[in-house]
Amino acid sequence: MDAFKAFKACVPIAWSPNLYITLVRGIPGTRKLHRRTLEALRLRKCNRTVMRWNTPTVRGMLQQVKRLVVIETEEMFKARKQKDVNHRALRPPVVVNHLPVPAKTDSS
After folding, report:
1. CATH (domain of 51)
2. What region holds the Large ribosomal subunit protein uL30-like ferredoxin-like fold domain (predicted)?
């Protein structure tokens, strides 16, 4: 199972009131019907995310373009965003001292 399918299979989508939809595949080369569906979902560029209500209409549209998008629940979306924020957070700089360490003398 590839990463996107594993990512999609984490949470049952039917339980979530809102869906976060991310376009992960490019639009060029797709069928006109799929392009119009993506336009209706307001997905115009790759790696852009939109939030839509979880209705049968939206789920039907997503079924049509399921190979082009990743669908997340609100909890999954917030967890992914928090992971990105933590990854980009400022970390203390690594200090490397190239000077030789003076040897300790044993005066006993």
Report:
1. 3.30.1390.20
2. 20-69
